[in-house]
Design a protein that fits this description.
Layout (H helix, E strand, L loop, with lengths): L1 H9 L7 H27 L27 H30 L4 H26 L4 H25 L7 E3 L3 H27 L16 H29 L3 H26 L4 H24 L1 E3 L5 H6 L3 H4 L1
Antiparallel strand pairs: 1-2
């Protein structure tokens, strides 16, 4: 409905090139990851209640105010994070507009629309988080929704490069696609376990709220570590299998990137655990989680390739162009 209303207006502007579409969608993906990182900074600095009300910062004021018991630097950090939300929304709207103006396929339009809609959901979740005093059970979903939006933004960015009038195939055999589905499920569990580890630690939310105490930090950390090992093992198995079946080189390269990013993230996690969870490393770990999500999403997106770019053996058994449209 909205697309039909916008189309006559958008036709007055020149159609964006594929390069422009990729730049816009890259920015949209970057901002989705960036706001997750700044949200982590808010949490580790204890600035989550720097603006104690929502949607205004203070009662009767949309911006920070002086002369209150809330430190000015806490106000600045939390208000800066809220301002970034507007940048995220603008980037998401820009992605919708370029996809609509370029007349791209339905799949891409769905991904594009998911970004601004998801960002609105995030804003509401952020408000709930503030109004409940930064309870850990509101902070954790807030982060996980960000990872979902990063994943969708990467699907959009990668998909933009594929022509709309060329058949698309799954460029790996079905068993390998299944292996990737399992790996993605383990990644989701890994991210969830990571939020629970944080919920049980000193950076669960506000310093004035209860932590997750139902399970001990060592037990949660063990589960998180076990899931990490499982994910790396699945990635290594995927790498060997991709080489055996002669998968597209870009898919193999992207999988190597995921392995590298995951191992770097593991190092950060281990160091922060044994150094008392310092704030800077927690923020870096959040950035790493976003990087792992984005890199893994790129692997998923690259399993689908234009027909002429895929091997004939794989293509003949994995056609899915009809479903994509």
């Amino acid at each position: 409905m909205i697309s039909r209303v916008l189309s006559p207006v958008l036709r007055r502007f020149p159609a964006p090139s594929v390069a422009t579409q990729r730049r816009v969608t890259w920015i949209a993906a970057l901002t989705q990851a960036l706001i997750a990182v700044t949200g982590g900074v808010v949490r580790v600095t204890g600035s989550g209640l720097g603006c104690p009300t929502w949607p205004s910062c203070f009662a009767g004021s949309l911006v920070p105010v002086g002369g209150t018991e809330v430190p000015a630097w806490h106000q600045a950090i939390e208000f800066g994070n809220r301002l970034l939300t507007y940048v995220v929304v603008l980037a998401a709207i820009a992605a919708v507009l370029v996809v609509l103006r370029a007349g791209r396929r339905t799949e891409l339009r769905r991904y594009a629309w998911a970004l601004p809609l998801g960002t609105v959901v995030q804003a509401v979740l952020g408000g709930i988080t503030v109004l409940t005093g930064l309870q850990w059970w509101t902070v954790a979903p807030h982060f996980l929704v960000s990872m979902v939006l990063v994943w969708l933004a990467v699907q959009l960015h990668v998909g933009i490069a594929r022509p709309d009038d060329v058949d698309v195939v799954v460029a790996v055999p079905s068993p390998l696609r299944g292996l990737l589905v399992v790996a993605t499920g383990v990644l989701a569990l890994l991210l969830t376990a990571g939020t629970l580890v944080t919920a049980a630690g000193p950076h669960s939310g506000s310093t004035d709220v209860d932590r997750l105490t139902a399970v001990s930090i060592p037990a949660l950390t063990q589960v998180h570590g076990d899931l990490l090992v499982a994910y790396v093992a699945l990635l290594v198995g995927l790498l060997f299998s991709l080489r055996v079946v002669g998968a597209p080189a870009v898919l193999v390269r992207r999988t190597w990137v995921v392995v590298g990013v995951v191992l770097a993230q593991a190092v950060v996690g281990i160091v922060q655990y044994y150094t008392g969870v310092p704030e800077a490393l927690v923020s870096l770990h959040v950035a790493g989680a976003a990087a792992v999500t984005a890199a893994s999403a790129a692997v998923w997106a690259h399993t689908r390739q234009p027909l002429d770019a895929s091997s004939s053996t794989t293509a003949s058994t994995n056609r899915d162009s009809a479903a994509a449209r």
